[in-house]
Amino acid sequence: MVARRLGFDLQSLEIFVTVCKTGSMTVTAVQTGLTQPAVSRQISNLEQRLGVTLIERGSRPVRPTLAGQRLVSAAEHLLSEATAIPTLLQNADVGIIPKLRLGLIDSLSDPLVPLLIKSLRDRVASISVATGFMEPLRHRLLKRELDAVVSADPFDDVDGFERFELFQEQFVVLVSRGEPPFGDEAEFRNFAMRYPMIRSGTTSGIALRVEQQFRRMRLEVPHAFSCETIESIVSLVAAGIGWSILTPVCVRKCVALAPAIQVLQMPGAGFSRHIYLVVRRGELGGFSRQLSTLCRRAIQKNYMPQLVAIAPWMSNAIVVAQN
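and the corresponding structure tokens:
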């Protein structure tokens, strides 16, 4: 039935590929345990089902036609995938994930990515990581180009996804060394309107949240500079060129620049973001919960101590979610 529907089956593909590689139906018969006429019939039947000529008749050694060359390439891929199925099933029994395509917002790429890869080496056979802005990562997960995404987007507007909250973090103000802390919101407003602000790229999730907060505060902050990367923003702050609003994990990403900056509390309550692990429902099984636990553990053990060393009050700026 499969051969009638698709025009081929794995056995006929394997015989065809072997004929093309050996250049001989006789040698192929020996290797496959068939008779030479049986090999010839398999090739003829495959050609009839596909409606194309696959080998050049009368050539010695046997050579594939252009259509046959294309089929060899496609067939080798299919046969490789089929050969891997037993191993894939065996790995499922011992809890090994064959492949994980993970996406993370840029603010979490370092050091969370190396920490996760190190923790997952015995659980995932192959890992690929994509970092960037929240919106492109969302599209890639929806298009099934990624298996999981860590970002501020909970995907609560679409069906078929599971989300695991990892942590909540308060937005913070980054200024150069020597600036006094803000006593209240009035002092912050006066500061924000007098000094140049270095904004995140306009398409980033942080940039959108900051502009929303300014609108809520009815605060007009002059446009001065805009940078696409967190490292560039923190570098400019460290150089005394301006100030910015980021989050604690952004500060942790640029910890080497910490001696040249100050991290101050953002006046007012409630300006924060939640970070989630989002996966398609049912596809990763119990591994999704394991992955969320690893992310929380990395934040607790590898982010919090560094942040508290920069500014002790940041012990309250991140709240790691419970399992």
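(Above: one complete record from the training split.) The longest helix spans residues 66-83.
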